[in-house]
Amino acid sequence: MIVVLALLATALLSFIWLKHWRASWHTYIKKRHGLMCTNCAYDMTGVDSDTCPECGESFDASEAKQRWSEYLQIYPHFK
Length: 79
Ligand SMILES: [Zn+2]
Prior knowledge:
Helices cover 56% and strands 0% of the residues. The chain has one domain. The protein has helices spanning 2-31, 61-74. The chain is mainly alpha-helical. The mean pLDDT is 92. It is elongated, with a radius of gyration of 17 Å. It binds zinc ion (ZN). Residues 37, 39-40, 42, 52, 54-55, 57 line the site of zinc ion.
C-alpha cells in the first residue's frame, strides 16, 4: 500500500513540476519575442551579430521568431 501511495505522489509531483517548467519556458520565449538562438535558446536580444555567441550557430531574427512561434503552437501551455 505504501508503495502505491509513493508512486502516486511521485507521479503527481512530476506532473506539477512539468506543468510549472513548461509555463516558465513559455514565459521565457514570449518575453524575448522569439529572439533566441534556435540551436541553444540563447537570448539574442541586444546582440548585434548574425552568429550566436553561445554556440556559434548562424542567427536570423525573422526565422527565429517564426520557429519559436511554431514551437509554442506545437507544445501549447496546458493549464
Ligand atoms: Zn546558440
